[in-house]
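Revision sheet: structure tokens.
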Amino acid sequence: MSNYNAKNELVQNRQLKVQELAIPLAITGNATPASVVVASDEPGFVFLKTQGVNKITAALNGDTEPTFVAQNDANGLFSVMLVIGEQIVKVLSAELIMRNAHTYNSAKLANTTGITVLGDKIVLDCDTSVDLSAASLDACLVVKYCVAE
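Predicted:
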């Protein structure tokens, strides 16, 4: 894969600051909220929270609990936390792309800015049309963000 760096110094600096992650994730639905199964290709730094399953709180590692929209399995609402491990300046965009359908779903910033209090984690609320109490989700989360210099 070739890399292109802009010749304009200001543009090149921006290219170097902007990072992008694309992470497949899956939620196996279940009528019992505590029996929903969450998984991602990167379990070491991607944590999910559904109505009955919370992998986020244990991964906060001294950070403040983020302010999320209430998770609701039947309405396809769940939350995600990415532990980046370096200072994040801004979350630029986040989207959830279904891998088995032609749909995009919103992944909006939680905690107002999408960044936790310590500044090294991205937090998102995902709103899908998948009823997680009866069906499963197969998607790719794409996040773009800027890191500090």
